UniProtKB/TrEMBL annotation:
Pfam families listed in its UniProt record: BT_3987-like_N
Protein known as: DUF1735 domain-containing protein
Organism: Sphingobacterium bovistauri
Domain BT-3987-like N-terminal as annotated: residue spans: 58-146
InterPro entries attached to this UniProt entry: BT_3987-like_N (IPR013728), GH (IPR017853), Glyco_hydro_18_chit_AS (IPR001579)
């Protein structure tokens, strides 16, 4: 398979116009909040926040604190524009990106701050303005102040996004009108989009919205992929993010915010990696539990909403000491997953496994349907859910958008096929439709502002929701530079 000028309101505030990864013990927060000699600059509403993330115009309150009172009447001074620009450059370097830009001077105002003799704290007000004139993207305000030779810094991130109306339990997409005989259908059709992160950026899928309602087209976005690797020294499997995913690991909020704001769930595909471990050779429930605890650590750290079982490329012969255990091994994993993360999604890609409607956990006698939240077929498969998954959790006729000039590059040619496949899922009372890896070259709007992928997706969204799709927001360049 898947083959924010700092404009000073008072003149006395000085402004100068002239590889293998494991869970890090420290991350970008080292650059986001810093103090020197006992001074801090914190968000007044949320003083424990490592950064302040802003996505609208308004006033924001901060508190400067020193562990020593001012010897005489003093003023906070802001670092020079040059120094602030250098901080943005260093921040980008630390996070392996060039995406953060310094907020333009016309979009920010900071009040002047006087600290009276004998005082050690002061309120600082930061105002974001002219937000409607900002281009889409992420901006950085390295909020750095100096006081009696001491320095405090707090990173403020400003995010300007495209237009959307978020999904929620009280705000859903429309139900399909086709095949109203599906009496058990209680939810709108769900759209699942995988992204090959070695090439493309997951956020682009979030910017597909329905033209009228502005609801997101995709309900779930799947990162393809993190790997199930094996540590021969510790003799345990672990989750591995390759170098292309390192920016996500270092600064997950930049990737997850556009999704979470829209109500989209983020799932990480777990793909074996030719190292002799996969979903079929967990030797016991406890071994599966150990791996799932690591998954939970990553989910909590990065804001992941679920994980996808993708049984490929295990190469079990590499580790004869861990023989395969049949379907019971998969049940060990599924049971451990729901025991540790009952609030997280567990999904299943129908490929490489031998689970069926007859399969059951030998300990609990539960079936696959008791553990799996969503399931979709391999490409072009028309048959129903072979693992006994309920129809409302299932989707067939999955589409590979990975190939050049395939499905999403020529809407008039391939659109009817996409529409037919969408109609098939509705007619058969299935609940979802999976698309793997739409190429960024088809997603990116052309000089006329038209996304051919959006045109193609419209053949699907018209069937599911009665609306066309559009690309609305910033296009994010992928790891391949396109």
């Amino acid at each position: 398979m898947k083959k924010i000028l700092y404009i000073m309101s008072l003149s006395f505030l000085f402004f100068s116009c002239t590889q293998e990864m494991t869970l890090p013990s420290k991350d970008a927060s080292e650059l986001e909040i810093a103090s020197s000699d006992g001074v801090t600059l914190l968000n007044k509403i949320n003083p424990s926040a490592e950064t302040t993330l802003i996505d609208r115009e308004g006033e924001y309150d901060f508190v400067f604190t020193s562990n020593k009172p001012a010897a005489s009447e003093s003023y906070l001074t802001l670092a020079s524009r040059t120094e602030l620009t250098n901080l943005v450059t260093e921040y980008n370097r630390h996070l392996l990106t060039t995406e953060y830009a310094i907020l333009p001077e016309t979009n920010l105002e900071v009040n002047a701050v006087k600290i009276e003799a004998g005082k050690s704290t002061a309120d600082v007000k930061l105002t974001i303005k002219n937000f409607d004139k900002l281009a889409f993207g992420f901006y950085l305000v390295p909020f750095k102040v100096n006081f009696e030779g001491k320095t405090a810094i707090h990173m403020v991130k400003v995010f300007k996004d495209g237009a959307y109306s978020a999904l929620s339990p009280n705000s859903k997409k429309a139900m399909p009108t086709l095949a109203s005989n599906c009496v058990l259908r209680t939810e709108p059709m769900k759209m699942i989009g995988y992204i090959e992160t070695n090439d493309w950026d997951i956020r682009n899928l979030a910017n597909f919205v329905l033209k009228g309602s502005k609801k997101p087209v995709f309900d779930y976005i799947v990162i393809f992929a993190a790997n199930m690797n094996y540590d021969p020294i510790k003799k345990r499997r672990y989750l591995h993010f390759n170098d292309k995913l390192e920016p996500f690991v270092k600064d997950a909020v930049r990737y997850t915010k556009p999704l979470k704001d829209r109500g989209i769930k983020l799932i990480v595909d777990i793909l074996p990696n030719h190292q002799g471990v996969g979903f079929y050779n967990f030797q016991s429930y406890n071994e599966a539990l150990d791996f799932v605890k690591e998954l939970k650590m990553w989910a909590d750290k990065l804001g992941i909403d679920g994980f996808d079982i993708d049984e490929e490329y295990a190469n079990y012969s590499v580790l004869p000491s861990l023989p395969t255990k049949g379907n019971q091994s998969v049940f060990y994993f599924m049971r451990a997953f729901k025991d540790i993360m009952p609030d997280k999604l567990l999904t299943l890609y129908d490929y490489g496994h031998s689970l069926s409607s007859f399969s059951e956990d030998e300990d609990t006698k539960k079936k696959v349907n008791d553990f799996i939240d969503l399931n979709w077929s391999d490409y072009n498969i028309t048959s129903g859910p072979r693992a006994g998954i309920s129809n409302h959790k299932y989707g067939n006729l999955s589409v590979e958008g990975n190939l050049r000039s395939y499905y999403f590059s020529s809407p008039t040619v391939y659109g009817p096929t996409l529409r037919s496949r969408a109609q098939s899922n509705v007619t058969n009372c299935y609940g979802n439709f999976m698309i793997f890896n739409i190429r960024g070259t088809e997603i990116k709007p052309n000089n006329s502002g038209v996304s051919t992928a959006a045109q193609s997706l419209s053949y699907i969204t018209q069937v599911f929701y009665g609306e066309d799709a559009e690309f609305n927001g910033k296009y994010y360049v992928g790891q391949n530079g396109l």
